[in-house]
Each structure stands twice: as structure tokens, then as C-alpha cells.
Write a structure and sequence with these properties.
about 55 residues; mainly alpha; about 40% helix
Length: about 55
């Protein structure tokens, strides 16, 4: 990763993965986010978050 940090549109990401709850800093939230993410975004498409196609 470069020294430049990229911003993530959190609201857009949560909508994209279908996570409809207010995120909290706890284990149930982490499990929920992970579950929604892996069902929605295949590993090969991680570059879409980095500006790739």
C-alpha cells in the first residue's frame, strides 16, 4: 500500500453488502459485517475498493 491513504465510503459499503444496522465496536457487529461481506463481494473483487475495475 502506498503512503497515501484512501477514504472509504462507509455508508455506500454497508449498503452494498446489505448491512442495515448501525455498526458498533463489538464482536456481534464484526461477525455480521464479515458474514455480509463474504456473501456479497468475492475475494477477486477487492480491487473495486481501491479504484480498480
Amino acid at each position: 500500500m502506498t503512503a497515501e491513504t484512501q477514504r472509504i465510503n462507509l455508508r455506500g459499503y454497508l449498503e452494498r453488502i446489505g448491512y442495515n444496522r448501525m455498526p458498533a465496536v463489538d464482536l456481534p457487529t464484526l461477525k455480521g459485517l464479515l458474514s455480509h461481506h463474504v456473501r456479497t463481494i468475492p475475494f477477486e473483487n477487492v480491487t473495486s475498493f481501491l479504484g480498480g475495475q
